[in-house]
């Protein structure tokens, strides 16, 4: 029950700064426990940055924010080597990527060369500055935001980078009750600072415990059936990779953990299936022109795939 208690405390604490968005918070936690990264997509003003900052404060980890722009260079993210005239020595200045939680705001505004600077960090947990490798803090998590409506002054994210994100989370408008509550609380000034609900040591133990959640052969077979169905669907240019299957497995384990179970059930797989695969699949042009979305295909696959008892 540790995982469930942790999730409830986290929701309670983050609610001091954020109204609603519990599903987004759960997915962020699943990604953290899976040691993965998250891409948050939504129009400006729907609290993408606020959620990421409140989440990092609640888990007590170091946090940095990178506002990505077209003129940003890789060295501005990972760091650089400079000559210190006072000491007469070459020194290394580490960039903002050296934090537990890195918020990469408006990732698609950065030029491809700068976007690729994050690839090594996201995949290897390290960066290379002037030929020297430096390990990043653990746990390490990139939370990138992206505005889906802008098409000028932005760069398309390459598939190789999209595949590094464990989950893609879509943040939309709040419900009527949530927005009224938000306005009321803003009027009264009823927002307060978020404090850590877990120590670094406890969090590391939670990550280990999440990986230790058991998965039956039947559920593993179910995961494979879902993944393989994307490879035979005529609407998709290509299907999900084995890495996508691994991410689906780890995210399912984390889902079970935050629900207070030490075993995965099919509902855990269903819960994370679309967030894990939605950003990795490319539709064939003729279906895209017809208005079909990857989410539509994935929802059909979920309905048609036999669920183990």
Ordered list of secondary-structure elements with their pairings:
Elements lengths: L1 H13 L7 H12 L4 E4 L6 H11 L4 E5 L6 H5 E6 L4 E6 L6 E5 L6 H13 L1 E4 L2 E4 L5 E6 L12 H4 L4 E4 L5 H13 L11 H12 L5 H16 L3 E3 L3 H17 L7 H12 L4 E2 L1 H5 L4 H11 L5
Parallel strand pairs: 1-8, 1-9, 2-5, 5-8
Antiparallel strand pairs: 3-4, 6-7, 10-11
Helix pairs in contact: 2-10, 8-10, 9-10, 10-11, 11-13
Short description:
The protein is 47% helix and 16% strand.
Structural notes for this entry:
The chain has 309 residues and is α/β, with parallel strands linked by helices. It contains 13 helices and 11 strands. Strands 2-5-8-1-9 form a 5-stranded parallel beta sheet. Strands 3-4 form a two-stranded antiparallel sheet. The protein has a two-stranded antiparallel sheet with strand order 6-7. Strand 3 and strand 4 form a beta hairpin. The chain is globular, with a radius of gyration of 20 Å. The model has no long low-confidence stretch (mean pLDDT 88).
